[in-house]
Amino acid sequence: MKALAGRRIVCCVGSGGVGKTTTSAALALQAAMDGKRALVLTIDPARRLANSLGLRELGNEETRIAPSHFAEARLAPRGEMWAMMLDLKRTWDELVQRQARSPQQAEAILGNKLYQTLSTAMAGSLEYMAMEKVYEVYTSGRFDLIVLDTPPTSNALDFLHAADRILDVLDNNAMRIVLGPMLKAGKLGFRLLAAPSSLVLRTLARFTGSDFLRDLAAFMMAFEGMYEGFKERASRVKALLTSEQAGFVLVTSPNPLTTQETLFFHRALEQDGIRTAAVVVNRVQRDPRRHGGPDNVPALREALQLAQIKDQEGLAERLCETLTEQAVLADQDRREIERLRETLRGVPLFTVPRLRKDVHDLAGLWQIDVCLAGGE
Amino acid sequence: MPSLLDRRLVVVTGKGGTGKSTVSAAIALSAARRGKRVLVCEVVAKERVADFFGRPPSGTKIRELLPNLYSVHVRPREAMREYALMILKYETLYRLAFENAAARYFLAAAPSLAEIVMLGKVWWHATQETERGRPRWDLVVLDAPATGHGLTFLAVPETFLKLVVEGPLARDMRSMQALLADPERCSICVVTLPEEMPANEAIELDRALRQRQFPAGPLILNGAFESRFSPAELAAVTRGGPLLAAAGEAADNHESRAALSTHYEAVLRDAVPRQLLKVPFLFERSFGARAVEKVAHCLEAAL
Fold first, then answer.
1. pTM metric for this prediction
2. From A210, which residue of chain B is nearest by alpha-carbon distance?
3. Which residue among B97, B145, B256 places its CB closest to the CB of A200?
4. Looking at the domain assignment, is residue B185 inside a domain?
5. Helix (H, G, I), strand (E, B), or coil: what is residue B225?
6. Torsion over CA of A247, A253, A258 and A261, rounded to 10 degrees?
7. Residue B84 lies in a domain
8. Helix B101-109 to helix B91-98 angle, to the nearest 10 degrees?
9. What is the ipTM, given to two decimal places?
10. Mind listing the pLDDT tens digit for each residue in B66-112?
């Protein structure tokens, strides 16, 4: 895709179920065909696609797509295609291990009860770790292109702010003050038995009990001194993603609800000073009427007769109904694409027609690349 | 087993974009038609049910959409406030404890507190009684969020109780868990589409729900396509020359979608031991009351 030339990182953004994973994989395949070492980093791929890419159980490891897979699809790439599935828990653990000031500190965090739940359950955690992984792979310099299939968040407007939100939990001054007496007791080596003393703490404790507050104090203590490192790294990740090195591709389907969300994503990116590099609209209904020909029952009946096809059991009626239904869908899709074009003026827009089968191998991905190469 | 409409709480879950809101509205409409007082709780980013019936959004106040049919948009901040006030009784105490920087942090850190208070509000409505001791609502329909698996949402009490064992929240979590586990009072429907990812997710969701012994309601296969042309007809029409090019392509498109639909229906029937209800793909130009009516009609067998 010309719109993405020169980028080292491509982030595919969009709502769930629009074919983000397939589009991401297709973009990586395209780059590999063009002679690049390309990696697609996916979050939750459909099983058959994962299988066909050889991603069965390879959490967090880059895996090269075997040349035999390419041969099966009759493709001869000049470069290499790699794939990786993000393992949320392991990425967190690795980050903690890397940033900890001592093995003891890393151990204390990894063993903390709240860390185990929070690291994977907090809103934004997946987004944060996806970006962290991209950064790690990018700095390793092993790939010419990294395509990130972003998590299927329903309101992923703050994809780029996920890290800030999570880091705020690790180090929050207000909470530090409230938990103060408990933290102090911990530092002096006392067990954290002190009952919550302030009114705020006592009130919060009425909801969760004081055990939880003690766990929270222990959690914050475990991270003591690491926060700056985390924050610095997160801001470098953000700087990279908002630089010319990275390009954002909005992936959507022509469904009105989805296009609404897509435009929302676009505005959210703009607010972060990021320009959308391209839009890909998947599953577009092609309009059968482009062939011309009869589209009403009497005319279809006549056409059947001319072609010497028996008009049994209301075949002409059924054909007419089918044509009408698909015309409705095609019109709807056209309207939505028009709306996208109008609002996203200047952004290259690519459409991929609804394919006859689910895409779950390289040959299917290549079919998508052919559509994308067909231009805007 | 009692019918779906005899439960106190019906949860509608499934992957995003499968039509959960439409199905929730359809179930609620059928119940309301039978004279039940129904409340639809939408726990999603954007409320949609009121719009189906051509009404303005209900927001966080319960509003009547049709006779006997009410809806409310459950949002975390408001739910938290309502809940906290029920326990604290005093607005000033609430403000002091919750409207400060530390509490905002606390809300982010406490595991899934937003989900907890939202589920809590739904649970409260489902068990709410009038002054005369009768249920305030005959049926509460929960349009559950699509964030990954709706399971995360339903498992919130369990996750929470692992970390917090005392206090009023823990107590309420326990009775929430009890309601969600009771097949007499609760049923959990899974909505899916005849496509690879939604079908796989439905299979995984069903398995996880059964493992945790959530009462299994029907599996609703939305957007189904039925075959319309025999192979011989399709072959003849697609080879019927330029005059039939458009009709041939349309028929071919239709049959390929029907084939996918049949394939995933078989996969689902095989893997999911629930009553399967099919809702055909609707070619409506806009989704409104008419579409909801059609869906309600298809669900009749389970009601």
1. 0.85
2. B166
3. B97
4. yes
5. coil
6. 10
7. yes
8. 70
9. 0.83
10. 999 999 999 888 888 888 787 777 777 777 666 766 666 666 656 56
Q: Write out the H or E segment, with its range, that includes residue A350.
A: strand A349-353
For residue B165, give its domain range.
4-222+273-302
CA distance A131 to B295: 41
Closest-approach residue (CA) in chain B for A292? B246
Q: How far is B143 from chain A (nearest CA, A)?
A: 15
**Per-residue model confidence as pLDDT tens digits over A93-146:** 999 999 898 999 999 889 887 788 777 777 678 888 888 999 999 999 999 999
| Domains identified in chain B, total number | 1
Residue B93 structure tokens: 């105490």
CATH number at residue B115: 3.40.50.300
Is B244 within 8 Å of A200 when comparing Cβ atoms? Answer: no
- Asked whether residue A1 carries a pLDDT value surpassing 70, the answer given is yes
- The closest of A285, A282, A274, A286 to A347, measured between CA atoms, is A274
Tokens encoding A208 = 């969760």
**Mutation site, B171, B228, B249, B256, interface A, largest A CB count within 10 A:** B249
Please name each of the domains of chain A with its CATH number: 2-100+119-158+230-287+334-373 (3.40.50.300), 293-332 (no CATH)
| Closest residue by Cα to residue A20 from A121, A144, A159, A138 | A159
Distance between CA atoms of B268 and A354, rounded to whole angstroms?
23
In a domain, B40, yes or no: yes
The predicted structure's pLDDT at residue A334: 96
Beta A349-353 vs B63-66: how paired, if at all? Answer: unpaired
